[in-house]
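Hi P.,

Sorry for the delay on this. The queue was packed all week, but I finally got your sequence through. Input first:
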Amino acid sequence: MGTMFDSRRRAGGRSTAGIGGTGGIGGTGGGGETGGAGSPRRSVGTRPRRAAVAVVAALAVAAPLTLAASGDAGATGAAWSAAPGPIVFARYDAAAPVEDLYAIGPAGGPPVKLTHTPAVSEVMPSWSPDGTRVAFLRYGSGGAVDGIWTTKSTGGDLKSVPGTKGASEPAWSPDGKRIAYSKPVGTQREIYVADVDGSPTTRLTHSPQDESHPTWSPDGKNLAFSRADTASGNSRLMRIQLATLTQTPITLAGSHDWTPDWSRTGRIVFSRVDPTGFAHLYVIRPDGSGTHRITSARAHDTYPSWSPDGRRLVFTRGGTDDADPEHLFLVRADGTALTRLTKTDSHDLEADWRP
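Then the structure:
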C-alpha cells in the first residue's frame, strides 16, 4: 500500500512506516493503541497543523459543549433529534485545529455540527439505543485522552463516565445501561464494560495482545471485538460471552480484520485488508460462517455501521494518502446502491447510525 492508514493523522500525519507500523492512543509507551497491518484505527496525538494551537489543561477538561449548526446547514441540533435515523460522525479538515461531531440524515444534505469545543476534540461517537444521547471520546489538542463522555443528541448536558481516563471506542449496550470500551493496561489495550455512571467496572479480557473496538450482540449477552497481534501486525475478530467470559474466534488468526459492528439482524460487518492491499467491507455470521465481501474499490473502506433495519451500511471511504479526503458512503448489504453521503474536502470518520 505504500503508506499505512492505521497510524492516523493525530500522531503527526499518515505514517510512512509501511505495513506493520504502529500508532497509539497516548503513544505506544504508555499503554497506547497499537496499529497493525492495515489497521483502520487512529492514533490520538497531535497532527502537525495543530502544533501552533495553544492548549491549557484546564480548558481541555472544562471547555463548554455548545450546539451549533454548520455554516451552510441552516439547521439546529434539535432538528436532528427528531429526524429518522440520523448518522453521527467525527470530522476534521485542513483548517480545523480540532475534531467535532456532526450529524447527517441518510438522505444527505449539509451536516449539522453537534459539538464545538475549542482546543478539545470529540471523536468515536456511539448512539444510545433510544437516540437521546451520544457517547464519545474526548481529548485535548496536546494528545491527552480525557476519556469517555456523553451528551444529549441535541448538545449540552455533558457528562464524563467515571473511571474511563485513557479509554476509547465506546459502545452503548442495547439496553442503554452499560458502555463497553477499550482501555490501556500496560502497553496493550483490554476490553471493559461499565454502567453508564461508571460503576461497577468489569475488565473482560486479559490478553498479551491488543483488544479494541467492542460491539454488542443484539441481546446484549456477547461482545465482538478486534484482537491484534502486535508482533505480526495481524488482527482477527473475537467474540466474548459476558456471563462466562468464554472467548471464541470469529475470523482466522492470520487476518487483518478491524472495527466490527453487530447488526440487529445478527450479522457482523467489519473492515478487512485483503490480498488487494486495500481495506474492504466484509460480512460474517457470529459463528464465523458465511463470510462475503461487500465492497471492492481501489480505496480503503473503514468504520462500517449498520442501519437500524440491517439493510444498509454507512462507512468511510478514503485513498492511501493523507491528503485524500475521506467521505461517508452508503451501500446496501448486498453491495449495491453505493451512494456518497458527504461532499466536502474533509475527513469524515467513525460514523454511527442511530438505532
